[in-house]
Amino acid sequence: MNILSIGGSDPSSGAGIQSDIRVFTTLGVYTLTAVTAITSQNTSKFGVVEPVSSSMLKKQLESIFSDFKIDGIKIGMVYNSMIIKVIYQQLKKLKIPIVVDPVIKSTTGGNLIEKSAKKDFQKYIIPLATIITPNRSEAEWITKMKISTKNTPEAVAKEIQKMGAKNVIITGIEEKVNLVSDFVLEKNSKYTISGKKISNINHGSGCNHSAAVIYSLVNNKSIKQSLFFAKKFTFNSIKNAKKIGKGIVITDIQSENRVEDKLSSSITEFTKIRGIYKNIPECQTNFVFSKQNPKSTKDVLGISGRIVKAGKKVIVAGELKYGGSKHVATALLAVNKKYPQICSAINLKYQNTTLTKIKKCKLKVSSYDRNKEPRKIKNQGSTIKWGINSAIRDSKIIPDVVFHKGDYGKEPMIIVFGKTPENVLEKISKIAG
Ligand code: PLP
Prior knowledge:
Layout: E1 2-9, H1 16-26, E2 30-41, E3 46-51, H2 54-65, E4 72-75, H3 81-91, E5 98-100, H4 118-125, E6 131-132, H5 136-143, H6 153-162, E7 167-175, E8 179-186, E9 189-196, E10 202-203, H7 205-218, H8 223-239, E11 249-250, H9 255-272, E12 287-290, E13 300-303, E14 306-310, E15 313-317, E16 320-322, H10 327-338, E17 344-349, H11 352-360, E18 365-368, H12 375-380, H13 383-392, E19 401-404, E20 413-418, H14 421-431
Parallel strand pairs: 1-2, 1-4, 4-5, 5-6, 6-7, 10-11, 18-19
Antiparallel strand pairs: 2-3, 7-8, 8-9, 12-13, 12-17, 13-16, 14-15, 17-20, 19-20
Helix pairs in contact: 1-7, 2-3, 3-4, 5-6, 7-8, 9-14, 10-13
This protein binds pyridoxal-5'-phosphate.
């Protein structure tokens, strides 16, 4: 997968091209870049802008298009009319998703587009957009309309749609104490996306949002799914923002988003394994991934519903949530306590055929006997913790699989463990389906 980021260079790497490279690389996508302007800025102060010449931009784009297959494009800072026209000429015939992030002013106060370029931005850049992602003030700048009860977000979004953008999201439309909502006009239908608000002044969140949208679109997600993904991704990047320079914090895309994205794509891969429905137990399946050094199930990401069997298909019922899994998360915590590198697990239906495959491909297996469970433990409801501990207590090898053969009225179960969801998936592909 290759995504092209067209935008400005930010030496602090908090925004612009450098930030996009960080986001796409974190998400496992190759990033190509075309620099429109070089800025001097840091986390306290915006310095100067030096746009590249139109021929230089044209040459960058030509060298990319003549060599690479591009799956999607993000357009950020465009700065002046000459740059805008080159972008339009090079992109107008493309039939791939394009996300336009109208970049007007930096949080530190720098002008990121010349006033005289506004008309050409409206005429040439907006029509390229599969989705355009202005925040409230950018939407007002584009339309010259102040959002109010008279000029509703819908009216403003419709005005932007009239300029040629296929879909519009205006972020930060309504801010309450703990909540921030975005307004979406997806073709003719409208909806809002609300999420928790974090009040920090940061560098990079707008760039992260539009980058996450294009990433999700090129991964064949719907517009709605992509916007929800971007909302969560941006929230996490703000929550984990770090004070790297002396001024405002820089958003962090590494830690938490990585956990969510890795688990989410592994769950999708899992559901695609041929015949995987045969491995879903009566109590259904959960797939979990924990933060580093998890203290409780609240530090373990899992599906708030489960992966369920529907005929010969499996479907994911529910969404990813910390604390979303109780049983599989508890099993993982027990293994993680002894082997901190093990951060992911899944439960599968117990079958002799699966066990034979596990042994054949030499995965490390431990087991426990629920019949031997002390009554006190049973009464306390801490069976899983006890079971996993008794299975791994005497072993010095990290287990790939722990199973038990059930008890009166209790379904037997196989749990596969690994360092990451991909690692778990690798093991599953050898033994399931
Ligand atoms: N600098 C460049 C090159 C950008 O592209 C952007 C935003 O897209 C910014 C600065 C502004 O970033 P922020 O408002 O998050 O500081």
